[in-house]
Amino acid sequence: MEQKPPMPAQTQQLAINGISEDLDPAHLARFQFERAITYLEGFKKGLIDSLVAPRRTIELCFPVEMEDGSVQTFRGYRVLHNRVLGPGKGGIRYHPDVDKEEVTALATLMTWKCALIDIPFGGAKGGVSCNPKTLTQTELRRITRRFITELGDNIGPSTDIPAPDMYTDEQTMSWIYDTYDVLHPGRNNLPVVTGKPLDLGGSLGRPEATGRGCLYATMRYLEREGVGGRSSLEGASVVVQGFGNVGLTAAFLFREQGANIVAISDSKGGIYHEGGIDLDAARAFKQQHGTVVGLPDSLTITNEELLELECDILVPAALGQQIHSGNAHRVKAKLVVEAANGPVTPAADDILTSRDVPVLPDILVNAGGVTVSYFEWVQNYSNERWDLEVVNAKLQHKMFEGTDLVLTRWRSMREAEEKSFAAESESGEIYNVPINLRTAALAVAIARIANVTLERGIWP
Ligand code: NAD
Q1: 3-state secondary structure of 72
Q2: Which of 21, 107, 265, 316 could covalently link to 270 via disulfide, CB atoms 3.0 to 4.6 Å apart?
């Protein structure tokens, strides 16, 4: 190793609540990339540079007539980060915070995720800056149709394939399909978008795919590495932050494998029961009251306390940047499984790694969603509908394979690093940032894209 891996940047920007690190999503994505490439040799600098910059950024302004007769102008984005492995793939989100920087950082993450899990897609992401909570269904439909029309042939079944993301859903995907199909009549356009309803070419297993993928990655990790003497989920105590699509699905599936779910939470707070939360009762309670807080026979705790509970496995499945420099040293879980995107910051990664708490990274753990999106795309092209058992078996295969790749790479990188640490301490120069699973996962992904770029040859 010639170069030293970079250290997380400290800033004044967020020197609150004990957090003093740079949490800008674009900076985090760049930092993680730069740390991983210090472990990759033999790639020219120019090639590495080309892997960072997005291939295409589309920024649009378009008018929409609102239901009250007024006209509003919306800003929309679609970033295609990389398409060396295949067409771009990534969600479209509707949220007031959507901007070019956020969409670019998320498109970059999609590139690494698809490469790691080995599906023939590049990374992309899109969005419209709007507040869906204040918009009617008719207005959302008009925004979607106008946005897709403006994107024109910049999306397509073989070029760039959208999917649902924050505040977009099956209905939005149906409008996207319909708009594209109207503009391109006379051919099979179903593969232009994934996350569609079942009767419009959606795949069985897609809604729960991310939570199920999280289960498979965790099972494989336990089988290979073990946690606190356990090689399976049987009897493991598990804490899950977030009781939405991913967190709820993961909690139920982990329980099916014999785990004891001792705490869960949502945006209003968390609940704890040492003997195990009754998940069916919690789901019903949330449906009735809008939160799990207050479930009979459970102790109310805060989301901060939840993250610091004694347990075998902590699954953050809600928001990014939940475990940071201010609380990582208080996390008592023996394994952290990142179901959400970016719940552990780089500084927290280092604190946890140095405390021997492995973090199974997001680009592996939550790749189940895009993997089953890929299955949907394949089914659409071949006019097939796979049984649920087939979808789940294929997903398990992909998640086990991805986890194996990360662990094998991590072991070999760690061995090389230990030799280099030993040489440094002999020379009196001690520099010790243990390699973590995220860096190994990124190294697998980046190396795959760099190699394929070279195999294809740089044009002209
Ligand atoms: P969701 O909206 O269905 O659920 C989010 C859950 O988090 C809700 O229960 C919400 O109450 C809870 N929450 C919100 N703020 C919270 C807070 N401050 N503390 C604790 N809980 C809070 O979202 P989802 O689809 O389950 O996604 C969860 C995470 O997984 C996100 O980071 C998302 O980007 C990531 N992810 C989701 C998918 C997918 O297929 N749904 C795929 C990849 C990654």
Answers
A1: strand
A2: 265
Catalytic machinery residues: 125
- In angstroms, the CA 277 to CA 297 distance is 9
- Report whether residue 166 contacts ligand 1, using a CB cutoff of 6 Å: no
Distance 311 CA to ligand 1 centre (A): 21
Q: Atom 32 in ligand 1: which residue has the minimum CA distance?
A: 340
Distance CA 188, CA 200 (A): 12
| Pocket perturbation via mutation, ligand 1, pick of 93, 245, 364 by most ligand atoms within 8 A of CB | 245
- Specify the ligand 1 atom closest to the Cα of 210: 40
Q: State whether residue 162 is helix, strand or coil.
A: strand
* Burial (0-12, 13-18, 19+ Cβ within 10 Å), 98: buried
Phi, psi of 252 (to 5 degrees): -65, -40
Residue 437 Cα to ligand 1 midpoint, Å, equals 22
Residue range 193-206, pLDDT digits in tens: 999 999 999 999 99
Query: What residue ranges in 359-409 does DSSP mark as E strands?
Result: 359-360
Global pTM reads 0.94
The token pair at 54 is 């997005």
